[in-house]
TrEMBL record:
It is an enzyme of class 2 (transferase). GO terms for molecular function: aromatic-amino-acid transaminase activity; histidinol-phosphate transaminase activity; pyridoxal phosphate binding. Keywords: Aminotransferase, Pyridoxal phosphate, Transferase. The modification N6-(pyridoxal phosphate)lysine is found at K220. Belongs to the class-II pyridoxal-phosphate-dependent aminotransferase family. This is Aromatic amino acid aminotransferase. It catalyses: an aromatic L-alpha-amino acid + 2-oxoglutarate = an aromatic oxo-acid + L-glutamate. Residues 30-340 form the Aminotransferase class I/classII large domain.
């Protein structure tokens, strides 16, 4: 019997492996998806409830008010901001807007596992450039990997799952080498957690380099992972292309109002981010005191390069009541969550410490 063939690029796609979920009724801390451990603020829950009564209507297609608020905060024109259902979806639309079959996209590896999927879906070829042993992106090698076929370069900063942010000087040296017709995507999903003084002000970099696009999200620092809202900042001409490639009515009315309420409660939410940053220091200090070598995380997770022990270590953590994210044969990413979760995790880490 004849069968409908899947496009080879789709048939061969690696599956996106979501972080382990806590089974219903089980007692465990979920440190496997870089989520915000805090529940939504009452004011955000109220906005969600208010928005619920209008869901028989389509949402504002371009999330106009949200886009205007974001643009005003960032000091960019509203025409340069494109909202989408999570910055992962926005990345897909960015690639659809600039790449096609036969094009190359340079990306660091290991990095965000959604990248290879998004690249394959547009028919492009991913060119992976190894991340350095200290978990930092090798921007020089990424610039070296650019060919006449390269249409885009993905820069994940801080890099998921290793943690470090790129530095301003290395980013500028890199951009000086990238042709003006190659898009550079700065994925800043964790920008609110960055405390490294050498990290770039991506908006300033964007102002100087029209071939850059920034991606940001409400999923991590703002705690709205379940509502799917993120955005791109680009020059208006590119932004119009990204908008044209976007799913119509992608960002729900509920998500738009929750994001707006989160911006109104920004002070409170950024206080929570500060607490997560402090907890990150406690986790890094605890691991280093045990003898682990850990990359300098600027995000809400830490990385243990465990090689072949990654999966067994993750299983040991799960038995102790902490779900972490293993990347088989490579390492384990542990999100920063509740204090109790850090304590439990550090107990397991101590048993496996290198000294
Ligand atoms: C979490 C994450 C995102 C954002 O995901 P959305 O929930 O789709 O906004 C984007 N990039 C990286 C590297 C991430 O880790």
């Amino acid at each position: 019997m004849a069968r409908v063939p899947l496009r080879p690029a789709v048939a061969d796609l690696p599956a996106y492996v979501p972080g382990a979920r806590v089974p219903v009724g089980a007692a465990a801390y979920k440190l496997s998806s870089n989520e915000n451990p805090y529940p939504p603020l009452p004011s955000v829950v109220a906005a969600i409830a208010d928005a619920a009564v209008d869901v028989n209507r389509y949402p504002d297609m371009y999330a106009t008010e949200l886009v205007e608020q974001v643009a005003e905060r960032l000091g960019v024109p509203a025409a340069g901001v494109v909202a989408g259902c999570g910055s992962v979806a926005v990345l897909g639309h960015v690639l659809q807007a600039v790449c096609g079959a036969g094009d190359e996209v340079v990306l660091p590896w290991r990095s965000f596992e959604a990248y290879p999927i998004a690249i394959s879906l547009v028919g492009a070829t991913g060119v992976r450039v190894p991340v350095r042993p200290d978990g930092r992106l090798d921007l020089e090698a990424m610039a070296d990997a650019i060919t006449p076929r390269t249409r885009a370069v993905l820069v994940c900063t801080p890099n998921n799952p290793t943690g470090p942010a790129v530095h301003d000087d290395e980013l500028r040296a890199f951009l000086a080498r990238v042709p003006g017709d190659v898009l550079v995507v700065l994925d800043e999903a964790y920008v609110e957690f960055v405390r490294d003084a050498a990290a770039p002000d991506a908006l300033a970099v964007h102002a100087e380099h029209p071939n850059t696009v920034l991606l940001r999200t409400f999923s991590k620092a703002y705690g709205l992972a379940g509502l799917r809202v993120g955005y791109a900042v680009a020059r208006p001409r590119l932004a119009a292309g990204i908008r044209a490639a976007s799913t119509p009515f992608g960002v729900s009315h509920v998500a738009q109002l929750a994001a707006l309420a989160s911006l109104r409660a920004e002070g409170e939410l950024l206080t929570r981010v500060e607490a997560i940053v402090a907890e990150r220091s406690r986790m890094l200090d605890g691991l280093r005191a045990q003898g682990w070598t850990v990359p300098d995380s600027q995000a809400n997770f830490v990385w243990l390069a465990l090689g072949d022990h990654a999966s067994s270590f993750a299983e040991r953590c799960a038995r102790a009541g902490v779900l972490v994210r293993p990347f088989a044969g490579d390492g384990v990413r542990v999100s920063v969550g509740e204090k109790e979760a850090t304590d439990l995790f550090l107990e397991v880490a101590a048993e496996h410490a290198p000294r």
